[in-house]
Design a protein that fits this description.
heterodimer, A: alpha+beta, 8 helices, 5 strands, B: four-stranded mixed sheet, 51% helix
């Protein structure tokens, strides 16, 4: 019954720690777009694709004592850090999840800044559009982030690398 | 005259129990209502399995979609028109998006989407942008008009003011469904002074704000929403029917994948089972089709499918106990799973944890990933203030997520001691602390 929760725990297990709710959301969205079997529904919000289901699952895992959430004051806002607890690890050890290569991708994504993942996930959200239209979307919907052409190019390149790696895996 | 501005020779009205009348003057809106994709919404209930609990809840997504359209029409025609912050060119776009916002919903969407990993929002986009009657009507307005309508509904349109009319914490969608669902279920919650809220709505750059003088009407609306969620939407009996419905779909899919010889073959489900559902296939599904299969599958040889369908058709629902997620409860669940197997009752289908959760109101904190556009008040001095900063009532429930978990099971099976009595008694003892649960 908790398969989707267990998958999320697996992500936290391989990443050791994910800093920031935004980062967690974007990692999960990108992994889903890379065809890893995550089924949370995402909609477009302030920072790009966002899943309320995912937020809820994390809360439930915290309630279960399987995930540790640490809230830290960071300038004008709070930042949240997520990691698996010992009982979470124990639970996960009884759960057989077949997600080969997940660790390579998650660790790679986790090393990137949240701002960059926000851009990558936004591009993936609009990937059915032409590149020029995607750029327009980024500049219009994320104008406060002031992304540059170079950043957009490097995000496209990163997506290509991820996809190549996934196909090769 | 351009099609976008074309008016009907006489205003058409739909009699509506919530808004009294729904007024249509625009030819585009009338034509959209007549499309087969929109008419299909008549055959999809707004509240899914809620009719098992509140027998009046038979209203459809068609009624609701018209209601949302009417609320937006009143806002843009009666409140926003002529105000400098409102661009009249967005009027028709707002009305079309309001009317079509739910067009991608399927039958019993909640369960279908969960079991088959579908997303009605994706279908909404495909119906608006694909080869459909709706697309043909919208394309007559302008080549890029369908795309704009789809963007408003997907919340990716450049003008956030238009989006917030249909998707925000105080939008036409919620204002309609709260009142409509209250009316049809017959409950006394869900009522608030919508006329007052509409009169104090003001367009501002990127959003719609509420004049401070309307704050108490908004407080009432938020409390109504809170009560409706817990009294109607998350009702445990409705959720029991949802659980059974989901399990029927799981079972049918599993049987299909294992080559089970159905007496009534699930022809309409083939593409869904195979994970390759086209818009055409999707549009053929409605509640009458689903209920036909459930009715027929009562006589299948497979005992689980047959039993679950009988339960759904005849309202023989699962019972439930509270389930508070914790390590202890989790251990108990593992134990129960093992006992269910001993009792030869498949826990995959007959022991189910179901969770419901709602956040009544939340505001956006910069730097965090929050999902909700806040409600902003327009203060007498022209300042904009977030609602919970002014309202103590709203502040008290802001950001407080309430979650409810229940464990569902077939009590009738467990009380049948003709087989596996010891295992069943142990289960009842664990579930209820007694073996004589009524």
């Amino acid at each position: 019954m908790l398969t989707d929760h267990a998958k999320l725990m697996k992500v936290l297990a391989v990443s050791k720690e994910i800093v920031g709710r935004k980062k967690l959301q974007k990692i999960m969205y990108i992994a889903k777009k890379l065809d890893f079997p995550f089924y949370e529904k995402f909609q477009f919000h302030f920072y790009g694709p966002y899943s309320e289901e995912l937020t809820l699952r994390i809360e439930e895992l915290c309630n279960l004592g399987f995930v540790d959430e640490v809230k830290e004051k960071k300038g004008g806002y709070y930042q949240y850090k997520y990691s698996l607890t010992a009982s979470g690890e124990e639970f996960l050890s009884h759960y057989h999840l077949d997600m080969p290569e997940l660790d390579i991708f998650i660790n790679d994504l986790n090393e990137k800044p949240a701002r960059f993942l926000e851009l990558v996930s936004t591009i993936l959200y609009f990937e059915h559009l032409d590149k020029d239209e995607v750029k327009e979307k980024v500049f219009t919907l994320k104008k406060k982030q002031r992304y540059t052409e170079e950043e957009i190019e490097s995000a496209y390149q990163y997506i290509e690398e991820l996809r190549k790696k996934k196909t090769g895996s | 005259m351009a099609y976008a501005n074309e008016k009907l020779s006489e205003e058409k009205v739909f009699k509506d129990p919530v808004h009294r009348y729904i007024h249509v003057r625009d030819k585009v809106i009338w034509d959209l209502i007549e499309t087969k994709e929109f008419q299909r919404l008549r055959r999809i209930r707004q509240l899914g399995t809620t009719f098992f609990t509140f027998h009046g809840a038979e209203h459809s997504r068609f009624n609701h979609s018209l209601g949302v359209y009417e609320i937006v029409r009143r806002i843009v025609d009666d409140v926003f028109r002529g105000r400098p912050e409102w661009n009249e060119d967005e009027r028709l776009l707002s009305l079309c998006a309001a009317l079509l916002h739910d067009v991608g919903h399927g039958p019993f969407s909640h369960s279908f989407e969960k079991v088959f990993h579908l997303d009605h929002e994706v279908f909404t986009q495909e119906i608006i942008l694909g080869n459909t009657e709706i697309n043909k009507v919208l394309s007559k307005v302008g080549a890029d008009f369908p795309k704009k309508v789809a963007e408003v509904i997907a919340k990716t349109y450049k003008n956030k003011q238009v989006i917030s009319l249909i998707s925000s914490q105080i939008d036409a969608d919620r204002m309609d469904y709260l009142q409509r669902d209250a009316f049809y279920t017959g409950v006394q919650y869900g009522h608030f002074d919508m006329e007052r809220i509409l009169r104090v709505m003001r367009p501002r750059e990127d959003q719609v704000v509420i004049k401070y003088s309307g704050m108490h009407a908004v407080e009432d609306y938020i409390m109504s929403r809170y009560q409706m969620y817990w009294q109607v939407y998350f009702h445990p009996v409705t959720r029991s029917a949802e659980v059974i419905l989901s399990k029927i779909l799981h079972r049918a899919k599993s049987l299909f994948e294992n080559g089970y010889p159905f007496q009534t073959e699930p022809v309409h489900f083939y593409s869904i089972f195979k994970g390759k559902v086209s818009v055409d296939d999707y549009l053929k599904l409605d509640e009458s089709i689903i209920l036909y299969y459930f009715q027929a599958w009562q006589n299948e040889q497979d005992k689980i499918l047959s039993d679950l369908c009988q339960r759904f058709i005849n309202r023989r629902l699962f019972k439930y106990v509270e389930f508070q997620p914790s390590n202890e409860e989790w251990t108990k669940l593992m134990e129960l799973t093992s006992l269910f197997k001993k009792a030869e009752i498949d826990p995959e289908y007959y022991l189910v944890v179901d969770s419901s959760s709602d956040l009544p109101y939340d505001f956006y904190r910069p730097g965090e990933e929050e999902e909700r556009l806040p409600i902003h008040l327009l203060m007498p001095n022209g300042d904009i203030r977030e609602l919970s900063r002014e309202s103590e009532i709203v502040d008290a429930i802001t950001g407080k997520r309430r979650t409810d978990h229940k464990l569902y099971f077939p009590l009738d099976f467990l009380k049948d001691f003709s087989t596996k009595q010891r295992a069943k008694q142990s289960i009842l003892q664990l579930l209820m602390g007694s073996t004589d649960f009524k």
